[in-house]
Amino acid sequence: MLARDRHRGARYRKRIAVRDTTYPPLGIARAIRSLARAVLCLAWRADLPDTASVDTSNESDEVQLARLQAKLAPERIRATLAFAGLYQMTHEMIKHAVVDEVVGFYGKSLMDETWWYGEDEYKAAVLTLAPMNVFKASLLWLVNSEAITSGQAERLDAIYAHRHELTHELVKYIVDLGHEPDVDLFIDALAILSDIRRFWTGIEMDVGTFDEYGDIGLDEVTPASIAILGLCIDAYAAALEEPPG
C-alpha cells in the first residue's frame, strides 16, 4: 500500500468515534497463540476431533452406539453449541475487519452510511477487484496490501463454508457421528483475524493513536475484539470445568 494511502486512511480512522483497539500488554500475536492453545485444550476436554469429517465406516454397531451416547451427553452437546457460537463470533469479526474496515479506510463512516470522502477511490481501488462480491473484493485489497496472504484468503472459503453449516445445519453436528466442529479451521480463522487486525493496528500507530503509551511495538497492542474473544473462550473453559449435572 502506498504510504500516502496509509496516512490518508489513518487520518480518517483517527476521527471515528469507536475504534477496535485497546492497550493491554499481551499483544496480538501472544493473544492469538494463547487463544489457539485454549481452543485445542478445550476441544480435547470436550472430546472433539481435530477435523470436521469422521470416518465411521469400519466401526462396529457397538462402538457407534457408545460414541453416539457420548455425543448426546449433555456436557458434549453444550460443548458443541458453545464451539459453534465461538466460531460464528470469530467469523463475524473477520467479516467486520475485512469489509467494514476497508470501506472505512477510504472515508465511509463506520457508524452510518455517510461518505466523508473517497467513495470514487474506493470503487476504483477495491470494488473493481471483484465487482459482484464486496467481501472478496475487500479481501483481495487486503492481500494486495500485504495484510494477509493469498493462501489465507483462499482458506477463508472453507472457514465460511463451515460457519454456514454450523449456523444452518447445527443439528447435524450434534447427532451425526460423521460430523464434528472443525477445530483446525477455527485455529486458522484465529490466525487470519490476528493478521488482519495487526494490519489495521499498524494504521492506528501511523497516526499516533498509542503515543500516550510511550515507545511500544506493534505486537504489544491487543485489539478489543481479540480481548473480548479471549473472555468468551475463558467462559467456555469455565463451563467445561463445571461438574456434570
Structure description:
By secondary structure, the chain is an all-alpha fold. The protein has one domain. The longest helix has 32 residues. It is elongated and about 65 Å long.
* Domain unit count: 1
Largest sheet: none
- Which geometry do the CA atoms define? elongated
Work out the strand percent.
Answer: under 5%
Rg for CA atoms: 20 Å
* Number of distinct beta strands: 0
Class derived from helix and strand content: mainly alpha
Which regions contain 5 or more consecutive residues with pLDDT less than 50? 1-26
In whole angstroms, the N-to-C terminal distance is: 55 Å
Helix percentage = 55-70%
Q: Oligomeric form of this entry? A: single chain
**What are the secondary-structure elements, in order, as H or E?**
HHHHHHHHHH
Compile the SSE list and pairings.
Layout: H1 3-15, H2 28-45, H3 61-71, H4 74-105, H5 119-125, H6 134-144, H7 150-168, H8 170-175, H9 183-206, H10 224-241
